[in-house]
Structures are given as structure tokens and as C-alpha cells.
Amino acid sequence: MHRIRRWVADHWVLAIGLMVLLYLFLPIAVVAGLSFNRPSSRLSYDFNEFTTENWTNLCGPADLCAAVGRSAWIGLLATVAATMLGTLMAFALARHRFRGRAATNLLIFLPMATPELVMGTSLLALFTSAGLQLGFVTILIAHIMFCVSFVVVTVKARLAGMDARLEEAAMDLYATPAQTFRRVTLPLVLPGIVAAALLAFSLSFDDFIITNFNSGNTVTFPMYVWGANQRGIPPQVNVVGTAMFAVALLLVLATNVRGRRRGARVA
Amino acid sequence: MTNPSEAGDLRLSHVTKRFGPFTAVDDLSLTVPQGSFFALLGASGCGKTTTLRMVAGLEEPTTGEVRLGDRDITRLRPYQRPVNTVFQSYALFPHLDVFENVAFGLRRRKIREVRSQVERMLALVQLDGFTKRRPAELSGGQQQRVALARALINHPQVLLLDEPLGALDLKLRRQMQIELKRIQTEVGITFVHVTHDQEEAMTMADTVAVMSAGKIEQLGRPAEIYEYPATAFVANFLGQSNLLAGEAAGQSGGDVLVSAYDQRFAVPAPRARADRGEVFLGVRPEKLGLVAGEADVPAGHQSVRGVITDSSYVGVSTQYLVRTGWGTELAVFAPNSGAAAPLAVGSEVTAHWSPEHAFVLHREPGEGDRTTPVLDTPDAVGVVS
Amino acid sequence: MSLLTGVGARPVSAPDKRPDDSRSRRRWLPYLLLLPGGAWLILFFIVPTLQLGATSLYDPTGSVTTGYAMTWEFGNYPDAIAYAGPQILRSFAYAAIATVIGILIGYPLAYAIAQKAGRWKNVLLVCVVAPMFTSFLVRTLAWKTILSDNGALVGFLRDVGILGADGRLLATPIAVVLGLTYNFLPFLVLPLYASLERLDTRLLEASGDLYASPTRTFVKVTLPLSMPGLVAGTLLFFIPAVGDYINAALLGNTNTSMVGNVVNSAFLSRQEPPQGAALSFLLMAIILAIVFTYVRRAGTDEVV
């Protein structure tokens, strides 16, 4: 009896934690399940009959694949731009002392603390008053803007965790500033930059609220889902959702395994 | 590689480094002869690491000049000077294996044939066979050797070592001290070694400079500094000293006469830093002997009376505290040679010494006796700011 | 000199010119690095926010075709509050309730991963983030399936009598709050995990050693030390939750709509930008006020 009480005392927090994880994964399981569903009617969300047709006929619903492609493109361009802008800023903040540091930090923090609703409507107000045609370009502008801050924070953290003496050691060993950057700083910061880029891509690809205000007639994947919700969601949407989940998970596992293999040799 | 006629001594003249209002190094002048093993010894924050960084080029002096032979290197960038550093906690490149870490300097200088050099260097530090390991896969001692090999392979004119053994445990540290000494003799390069560990400095270096508050307090061979310290700081930073506040009244017959606490003492003039005014009379604890009464004091020795207040047995010796009539507690280390029976706490004793072993130092007016050692705090922070 | 070139340091042609050159370059370098990103943020974050403020003061009688005139119409604010009062209150109420639930379930999760998971730590951490890999809209729609009237969950709740015979979950406030909690939970758990992970277990043992019960140890040691993470986490959870309208739109009905739904319709369907801008601007002001007082009260400036 005593032993059981002890065990419960030690494990109840873990048990609650695992239940919360189940809650987090429940919808994922449903999405994966529904990706194999042949719905009974267009507006039905319930499981009806097993089929692999949604996976084989992914581009069946009009415009779905085009929307996914458009999101991927915007995501890619926004990621490249935001990663470059953000990485430069992170280097400035982590490696230099200068006047206006606090203001810069605030400028980077604010977009992360502002609801998307406010940023979306602000940009819309700007674009309409400037007479800019809403569409691909305005979406891209918006996505770069809200990705930059996350890139700065991620890369800056990596830079802060890096021993500044490594760069001094490189200089001491005859590396010019350019060589120091190329041979020491960049390889060591790269994991942070890659992580920031992945984060930026997923933020951009999945953004709905800001995009919704600034897209005009351009349809990204989230916009497609939103629109389809009124007419009835084609089950292929769940295929895209499941595939996104699987790809991202594989990416994370791959980097994890690589890290583990490197770590295993230490022991 | 190094040729005495061409290379030369490392010279710092009137070097000052300020960080904002704080002066880390204060008008420091210093010559390190070529091929010597030189130690900069001091507590954390004394400016020794800043001095080292100015030689490496990682810090620029506010004023003053750093010369290597006849070449002014004061304003050269780190990668432009023939000086390499073994960093505190090594700063090995974590993304490169041992081989590439050691080859780093050669590759930056576009030297093609690196393999044989790297292998020879790794053999010198006894790390052959570790070429493919990453720094994280090495023990502390092995990392230390890689850092040493990585710097030495470039045949610098001066090798700087910043607390190179600080991260190692005691036993490994002793081992590496001997190893470093061996390597230095083998390669004949000037070593400048920064440390807060007096024993480390004394074991390895030919010349030790004791630093405090950005200045050099004393410079010399370890035995010289220990036997005849120049200042009260050195007397208690390097080992321990009993310093009694007294007044010197000039010389008489080759001795300096010091009166303290109504007693008169004589110290040979060559062992006195001052012969008039406020002085400290100093004697090292191991130079003191204890006898029961004045009658037992050997001829020619001088003495003070007191009571034993504490006795600690530390193996090689027994360390006593003897309270004098005026309240100061003297430290006395009695060797554990078996010649004398241990003395009990509370015994009345007379502490005596040969005048040849005493020394006289300058004292600031109003300063009292100093018999407790300066606390030796480890230099945990890498960059002294 | 032959020796120097032999041992490495490349001979330098003009050693005297370099340091000054590089020193002045060093002074300008940070600004150069900041310029593109900073300009982007100013142009597309600061300027639009100012424009939003301006739009909120436009003459509301204008239209998209005729354009809007700046008439400093401060009356837009009371009008907008009168129009969308219930939605504003609902936004803050739903977000607050969701935040409390989020802390109640997120804290044990973060604690379990940080202190109890051992070598499964990283795996569990990935599990917290993994649900976010799927599209926000798609996983919210999945809740529509889970909560649907013919679904197993509603059926079970009806059978045990928690819900009435025709009781439902979908299109109720419960569904909206549940959706909010679900979607933003990882934002709360991650910073909380970060500060709990740093927590030295020896402190907990010391507390136990000094006669504190596990409960007292939690209240007196664990909770205060995890405060920075808790503050950051609740803000990261609360802020997007207040501004969200996807959950309300997909899982609720017209009686559960939040301020975001009103702003959305003001801009995109009802064509009343000044009203939408006023509400949006108001929302931002309230949130900033909450953030700064909260951060100050909690005594940690770490998040800002």
C-alpha cells in the first residue's frame, strides 16, 4: 500500500502531462483519419468510409494544389528574405555595442507582442491608403515583416550561446576577420539560422489572419481552407494537413538523430 | 626555428589599458627575455589577463608600446603577429576534429603540407591516434594538450598561456605542469604564463612577475621573490609571512635596526628595503623555531615570547599560532621531522629566528601587523575587466 | 624579417593605417547590419500602425469608392465600443478563461517534461510542438469533427447526463474556449518548460530537507523560480487568443463571436474601415497596457 502511494506521488504529474499530450494529439489523429475518409456529403465532418482516393487524387478539388503551391512559394521567398534581414540584425545585436540598442530590441519585440489582427488591419490600412493592389506582393511584404522578429530572436540566442573566445582563438591563429566568419562563426551559427528559417517558413505557410486582410483575390492554402469551410471542405485538405505534419516531424527527427549520433561518440 | 640573433625579447613599455573609468593595467613596463618561461602571477582582476590579451592583440593598449625584438606590434591585429595563445578553457573549435583544430593556423597561412606537421605535433603532446575525435569527446587534460598543440604548431615567437591548467583537477594539474615545462625546454619558445596559482608559477617559471592593481609588485626568480619579497603584498600573496609593524632607526655595523613593541631587532642591510621610518619586520613561518624559554634560544637568534593558541597537524608540518604579548598571532610552521615533541595549546613559548632570515619592508604609516595570508581567490572570470 | 614571414604572421604593408580604418568601420557596422531589417520593420510595422490610428479617425460616412477624409473623428471610438461591446468583453473573457485552463494543464505538462521525463525529455518536447506542424485551420476544423453532434464525445456526454438529450458542444462558448486553449497551449508550455528546466533540483531537495512539504516547496520554491517562464508563457498565450477569430468563426456561432470577427467584417464585408481600425487600435492599446502592467507586477522585465 505504502509503495503504491509512493509510486502515485512520484508519477501523477507525469500522468497528467501525458494526458495533456493526448489532448494535443487528438486532432492530429482525426486529421490523419479523415485524410482516408470518403465523406457522406460535402458538408459532413464525420468519418464515413475508408479510401486512399484523397491521397492519390490530391489535386482533384479545383485550386487546392495551386493554393498549396502559392503558399509554398510565398513561404520560400519570405523565409529567404526574413532570414537574411533577421540574421544581420541578430549579428548587430549580439556582437556590437551601439547607441539605440534598447530601441532596436523594442522594435523587434513589438511585432511578436502584437496580435495578428492588429498587424493585418494596420497593413491593410497602409496598403489601401497608398493605393497598392492587394495580392501576392502585399502578402509577401507582410510575411517577411512578421517573420523577421522570430529569426532575430532565434539566431541571437544561438550567437549568445556561442563562446566569443572561439572567434578570438581563430584570429589568434592567423584567420582574418573574413576567414574567422567563414571558418568559425558561420559553421557554429548555422544550426540557429537553419532553425530560424524553418520557423519562418512554417509561420508564413500557415498564416491566415494577416494574409486574410491583405490577400485581395490571391488564395493561399489557409485562405483556401477558410473559403472551403463555407462550401464544404474537400477531404484532400486533411491529406495536406497530414503531409505537413509528417514532413515537419521527419525533419525534426532527422536533425535530432544526427545530433544524437554525434553525441553518442562522446560517451 | 627561433634564432636568437633575429628574434628577440618581448618588451612592454609604459603600457596602460583603461576600460572606461577603470584602469586595468597601469603604466606597466616589462621585458621577457627570449626563450624564457615567464609567469604573470596575481589575484583575479589584477590586470594580468588584460596584459596577456594586449600581447596577443585581442586588446589594444590605451597608451604605451608592445615590441617584439625590434618590431612594434602594438597596433597589429591578432592574426598579424607571431604570437599564439592557449586560452582559458581552451576555446577549441567544437565543429572541427582534433586534426583540423591543430591544422587551423597552418591552413590559414596557406601551408600545403600539414599532415606530417600535425602528426609530429600531436606526438609531442602525446595525442597520436586522436585525430578524428571532436573536442567534446576528449577529457579536460586531452583538450588542454590539443589547445597547446594548436598554438605550438605555428612556431610562434611567444606562446601565451591564460590559466591553462585552471580547469584541470589537482593531480592532472601537477602532471601537466611538468609536461609544459618539458615541452617549453624542447621547443625553446618564449612562454608567457598567466596564473593565480603561486605554486604553479613557482614550479614552472624561470621568472615570475607578481601583479596587483594593474602594476607589477615584484619581478624575479621564484626563490628570490619568496626569500626576499619587495612589498607586503608579495610577502603574503606568495606564501605567508609574519609582518610586524615597527620603526627603523638607520644602519649600524651592516645591520638595519628595527624597534617594535619595545623590542629591538637587527636585520642585515642587504635584506632591508628601507632603513628609516615606518617598516615591517618580516619572517616566514617556517623560518621560526619554538623553544620553551629564552634560555633555549640559539646564539645570535632574535625572539619574541608568546602563548600557543592553536595547533594544526598537516602531515609534513605542524602549524602553530602563537599569540604575542601585544595580541598579534604569529604563524609558525614546525617541520614534522620527529626531532621535537608537539607543543600543547596554552604552552608558553619563545619564537626565534636567525636575523639572516628576516627582512624589512616599507610600511604605510598607521598600518598594523599582518600575519594572515591574502585570500587566494581563483580567477574564475576569463576576461579581467 | 624572413623569420617572421616564416612563422606565419603575414607581413603587413601599412600597419599604421589599419586600426583606425577598422575602428571607424566597426562603429558603423552595426547600423549597416540593422538597416535592411530595421527599415522593413519601421516601414511595414510602425508606419502601418500609425496609419491604423489615422484610419480610426477618418470620417465614417466615406466609402471605398469615394475615399475617406481625415476629420479627427474621435467619436468613432465610442461608436465602435457601443457597436461591439459584447464582442470585446467576450474576447477578453474567453481569452482569460482559456489562459487559466492553459496554465492548469500546461504547468503539469511543462513540469513533467522538465523534471520527470528523464531521457524522454526531447521526445516529449517535440510532441508539444508537433501539433503545430499541421495547419492551424485544419486542426481547428478537426475539433469540429470531434465535437460534432453525431460524434462519440457528445454521445458519451449525453449518455452520462452531463449534456441534455439534445445538448451540444459545437457552436457553444465551450467549443470556442476549448479551441483557443488547444491552439495556443504550446506557446505557454515552451517558455514555462525553459524556466522549469533550468530549475536546480537540489533546491527542491534543500527545501524538503528544511522541513517543507511538497506543496510548500512548490509554492515557495518552484513557482517563484518559474515565474519568468510563466509570465512569458501567459502573454504568448493570451495575446494571440484575444485577437483570434478563427476559433470563434469555425467552432462557435453568432452568439460567440469575438472582437476579431467584428473587425474582420468591418474591413472585409461591411466596408466600415474606420470602425474596424478603431476596434483594432483599441485592442492593441489595451493589450499593451496589460502587457506592461503585468510584466511590472510580476517583477520580471526579462520578456520585454
From TrEMBL, chain A:
Species this chain originates from: Asanoa siamensis
Family: Belongs to the binding-protein-dependent transport system permease family. CysTW subfamily.
Its membrane topology: Multi-pass membrane protein
Keywords recorded for this protein, A-Z: Cell membrane, Membrane, Transmembrane, Transmembrane helix, Transport
UniProt KW Membrane keyword: yes
Main location: membrane
Domain ABC transmembrane type-1: 68-255
Parts of the chain that traverse the membrane: 12-36, 72-94, 106-128, 134-155, 184-205, 239-257
Subcellular location: Cell membrane
Biological classification of the source: Bacteria, Bacillati, Actinomycetota, Actinomycetes, Micromonosporales
Protein name in the entry: ABC transporter permease
A Pfam family reported for this protein in Swiss-Prot or TrEMBL: BPD_transp_1
Automatic annotation (TrEMBL), chain B:
Taxonomic source organism: Asanoa siamensis
Domain ABC transporter: 10-238
SUPFAM superfamilies per UniProt: MOP-like (SSF50331), P-loop containing nucleoside triphosphate hydrolases (SSF52540)
Keyword terms, alphabetized: ATP-binding, Cell membrane, Membrane, Nucleotide-binding, Translocase, Transport
Segments of this protein annotated with the region Disordered: 364-385
Protein name: Polyamine-transporting ATPase
InterPro entries: AAA+_ATPase (IPR003593), ABC_SmlMolc_Importer (IPR050093), ABC_transporter-like_ATP-bd (IPR003439), ABC_transporter-like_CS (IPR017871), Mo/tungstate-bd_C_term_dom (IPR008995), P-loop_NTPase (IPR027417), PotA_ATP-bd (IPR017879), Transp-assoc_OB_typ2 (IPR013611)
Pfam families reported for this sequence: ABC_tran (PF00005), TOBE_2 (PF08402)
UniProtKB/TrEMBL annotation, chain C:
Localization per record: Cell membrane
Keyword Transport recorded: yes
Major place of residence: membrane
Membrane topology category: Multi-pass membrane protein
Lineage: superkingdom: Bacteria
Xref: InterPro entries: MetI-like (IPR000515), MetI-like_sf (IPR035906)
Domain ABC transmembrane type-1: 88-296
Keyword Calcium included in the entry's annotation: no
Database matches in PROSITE patterns: ABC_TM1
Pfam family, one: BPD_transp_1
Record key words, sorted: Cell membrane, Membrane, Transmembrane, Transmembrane helix, Transport
SUPFAM superfamilies (UniProt xref): MetI-like
Bilayer-crossing regions: 28-47, 92-111, 123-142, 174-196, 217-239, 277-295
Annotated region (Disordered), positions in chain: 1-23
UniProt similarity note: Belongs to the binding-protein-dependent transport system permease family. CysTW subfamily.
Protein name from the UniProt record: ABC transporter permease
Originating organism: Asanoa siamensis
